[in-house]
Design goal:
It comes from Saccharothrix longispora. By secondary structure, the chain is α+β, with helices and mostly antiparallel strands. The protein contains eleven helices and 14 strands. The longest helix has 15 residues. The relative contact order is 0.19.
Length: 322
């Protein structure tokens, strides 16, 4: 990584109240920067595991693209083909991955279960049984406009697991983590950094009923390897996930979960994630072979700027890539 690149990344390291890990690539050059403590008296490292929240959905999208490449499913398959649901022919796998399925943002019944742990672990008591009940109660919007849906991401994971005949966790390990040698990436809650919200420790994030939407943990070095695999576009699945599918306003599009923004001479493909105690960002530019992953064990707040600053750093890295 050039000096210019490192200068862009260094301001993201603010260990005053939390740990930060940054991993970036420009062409053949890469850098990993870490600051702060993952836990009291335990400095963060490039292998420290952070909760990545909705970045989980990008892994679920890669599983969808891989299943399509294997001939197990088709993008336009209805979810009802794989689950014991009656959502209708219009609720497809691709619709779930592009937030155009018509499903609500959250499952029916989740808010009632979440209230006792709203500021700490709101999904903890919403398990597989509650998820099944929510699917039976769901009313689908028929206009298929873009509406971000955690519910949809979770349903996509369930459908892919059913199509493959194995649990989501096993599918993720078999088809993504082991082939890419992602040793720090998985659903286990330990070991990992201690999360914080406004300086206060938070318990590990649990999503037993909505795993595929936001339960993943990963490290800076693993996310850089993951993004590099997408940059290299060696498989049909890697190409598929970054293919624009839904036009939004201006130069913005939705791919399979990933956001895509057209820039002069190149694209930026990106997504972010958050739990009560962590914030994460990942993005890449295929044309500039540039990638950036940022992680912190501080939860997102209304005034937080971590994601925006990370996006701006990616934009600068891509613009200055040789």
């Amino acid at each position: 990584m050039t000096t210019v690149g490192v200068d862009v990344l260094t301001p993201l390291l603010d260990p005053a109240t939390s740990a930060v890990a940054v991993a970036a690539r420009q062409g053949d050059h890469e850098v990993l920067l870490v600051a702060g403590d993952a836990a009291p008296g335990e400095p963060a490292t490039e292998g420290t595991r952070f909760e990545v929240g909705s970045l989980t959905k990008t892994f679920t999208a890669l599983l969808l693209a891989d299943a399509v490449a294997r001939g197990e499913v088709r993008h336009d398959d209805p979810v009802d083909r794989y689950l014991a649901t009656a959502l209708g022919e219009g609720v497809t796998l691709e619709g779930l991955a592009t937030h155009t399925s018509g499903l609500p943002r959250l499952p029916p019944g989740l808010l009632r279960a979440a209230v006792p742990a709203w500021r700490t672990n709101p999904y903890r008591d919403f398990g597989p049984e509650e998820m099944a009940a929510a699917l039976r109660r769901t009313r689908v919007r028929r206009d298929h406009r873009v509406r971000y849906s955690n519910f949809g991401g979770a349903v996509l994971g369930l459908a892919l697991a059913a199509a493959a005949g194995r649990p989501y966790e096993d599918l993720l390990a078999e088809r993504v983590c082991r082939p890419l040698d992602l040793r720090d990436t998985g659903l286990a809650t330990a070991p990992q950094a201690t999360g914080h919200l406004r300086g206060r420790p938070r318990p590990p994030w649990e999503m037993p009923g909505m795993t595929a939407a936001g339960a993943l943990r990963s490290s800076a070095r693993d996310l850089l390897a993951y993004l590099t695999a997408l940059l290299d576009r060696r498989t049909a699945a890697a190409v598929d996930v970054a293919t624009p599918r839904v036009a939004l306003s201006g130069t913005d599009h939705l791919c399979l979960v990933w956001n895509l923004r057209r820039r002069p001479g190149h694209d930026l493909v990106f997504h972010s994630g958050a739990t009560r105690g962590f914030t994460a960002f990942a993005g890449f530019s295929p044309q500039r072979r540039t990638a950036l992953a940022t992680l912190t064990n501080a939860g997102a707040t209304v005034r937080g700027t971590f994601v925006q600053r990370s996006y701006e750093a990616l934009r600068t890295l891509a613009a200055t890539a040789g």
